[in-house]
Amino acid sequence: MEKIQSTAMAPRILIADDDPCVSKAIADRCTKMGFDVEIANNGLQALIKLSERTPDILITDIHMPEVDGLSVLTYLRKIVKRSAHVMVITGNPGREIARMCDRLDVPCIYKGRNFWTELITGIAMLYPYRADAIRSAADQTAEIKLKNKPRVLFVDDDIRVKKFLFHKFEKFGAELLYAADGLRGFWQARREQPSVIVSDYCMPGGGAEYLLAKLRSVPETSNIPVIIQSGRRLSDPIKQRLQQSVCGQPGAARILRKTSDAAELFEVMQRFCGFTGGVPGREPFYR
């Protein structure tokens, strides 16, 4: 990669990773290095952010639901005229990924013991005039802890929905969390950093619109994907309001109708969490 010359404005870094703990850890360090940092919580968000504003460096996980890191990298190189500066990160190293990165002439960094050393070395090569700040941030790094399984937060005031969804999804290896309304869902999300949130639309004590506004108001939860369900058909104006950006961050990732078998929800969750296997059994909702 060619070295980037000093500019008056802080260089921009876009971090794309579906593990919010990893992306936040990288963002914290890069911010301390003096960079302007943005986070995308999945490949689709990364594509949207790239279309709005081109970063100086893209740090992307190769394995993300719905849109993978390779697609994000390819899109970036299509929209910029100069050589794109990309760092691929992965928790599943292998020869195939290494060969792919060699072909694309991008570094591949494993989320393991030497992660911070390799990441910081790569950034310092691009920005030698920031070497002191970069090395100073390196002294404050901690080991990257990978999530062992996706963490899903269900927000719904109907306890029967909780029991039904937990019964449906726990067999797929997800860590399942629950909150009874939007306010408690917000605080649960801040504490637990779920991979995705599934929320009912209308709830006493704070519905989906309130939850979205709260989530997008703080950095810890601003990029967590939110799937909204409703037992009644929502009007087009309501759907548009739910999907529009909030505080410059994405609105609802999906809006679904509650069904007795949760088949559509499961298909969406497969994309966000990488569940494998077929759609869960179609036993009735109330038993």
Present the secondary structure layout:
Elements: E1 12-16, H1 20-32, E2 36-40, H2 43-52, E3 57-61, H3 69-79, E4 85-90, H4 95-104, E5 108-110, H5 115-126, H6 131-138, E6 151-155, H7 159-169, E7 175-179, H8 182-192, E8 196-200, H9 208-215, E9 226-230, H10 236-243, E10 254-257, H11 263-273
Parallel strand pairs: 1-2, 1-3, 3-4, 4-5, 6-7, 6-8, 8-9, 9-10
Q: What is the CATH first-level class name of the largest domain?
A: Alpha Beta
Query: Which term fits the overall shape?
Result: elongated
Q: H/E element string?
A: EHEHEHEHEHHEHEHEHEHEH
CATH architecture of the largest domain: 3-Layer(aba) Sandwich
Q: Into how many domains do the coordinates divide?
A: 2
Strand percentage lies at 15-25%
Number of helices: 11
Compute the CA-based radius of gyration: 20 Å
Q: What is the rounded distance between the termini?
A: 60 Å
The chain-level structural class is alpha/beta
Q: Show unreliable segments.
A: 1-8, 281-287
**CATH topology grouping of the largest domain:** Rossmann fold
Any overview of this molecule?
With 287 residues, this protein is of the alpha/beta class. It folds into 2 domains: 12-138, Rossmann fold; 151-273, Rossmann fold (3-Layer(aba) Sandwich), CATH 3.40.50. The protein is built from 11 helices and 10 strands. The strands form 2 sheets. It has a 5-stranded parallel sheet with strand order 2-1-3-4-5, with helices on both faces. Helix 2 (43-52) runs parallel beside helix 3. The protein is elongated, with a radius of gyration of 20 Å. The N and C termini lie far apart (60 Å).
